Amino acid sequence: MGLWQFINAKRDKNPRIHLYYFSAKDSDDDEEVVQVDRDHFMDEFFEQVEEIRVCIDKLSEDVEQVKKQHSAILAAPNPDEKTKQELEDLTADIKKTANKVRSKLKAIEQSIEQEEGLNRSSADLRIRKTQHSTLSRKFVEVMTEYNTTQSKYRDRCKDRIQRQLEITGRTTTNEELEDMLESGKLAIFTDDIKMDSQIDKQALNEIETRHTEIIKLENSIRELHDMFVDMAMLVESQGEMIDRIEYNVEHSVDFVERAVSDTKKAVKYQSQARKKKLMIIVCCTILGVVLASTIGGYLGF
Length: 301
Known about the structure:
Layout: H1 3-13, H2 27-75, H3 81-117, H4 123-167, H5 174-183, H6 187-190, H7 198-299
């Protein structure tokens, strides 16, 4: 098998080998093939970026829906099962989408680290780093909002429990209530509640409902905690680099705007100079004609 037959056979098995097999050809062909492959790679990268962006947008929309479900559940002493199930479904979707985004961002991060380990530096690499950092920041912003939403919901549920305990005649401090929530031992406060009236029964039902909601909520927060900390640390480490990039971009824009302005001024001055030059030529021509006529008349021509 000849050299080119061997290369073609390998290329059929691995299309990306065309990055290398043209090295025996002239440099112009080599540059063209590498550029085509690089463009294809960046197209795939931007498809990934768009997919991640769509997922982050979905997360943001789901978080807003969670807020609405929280309000609906808190508005009813005993929320219906449909509303609670919808909240659980939203929570599961957020977890699934968040893990998907995290996985994709991690893959991009590893790809960038590999190229940096090979001491490669290119415009494409800088673009990928900027996109990755921007997406990571946006992702953490959305997840921070989700975490804040959950924390507020927990506080509101806790307030409801405390209020219902007061209705039944049981006064608790904030510390005592926190201990009960952390231990999960609701019976500490509810065993001695007398079920003498319908009000006491309703109060106990709401206490149990809110306690159940808090348990689910804390499980959800715990599941996402490690991922959230991991991404937050990543974004914090990238903060300085992003600030530098944004600074350079802003100053590049200013430089371009000044360059455009200076170019317009130069064109204007050049146009004015051309007009002046043309006027001088016309004046000189007229002056030459007048002088020639005068001299000709004087000499009798």
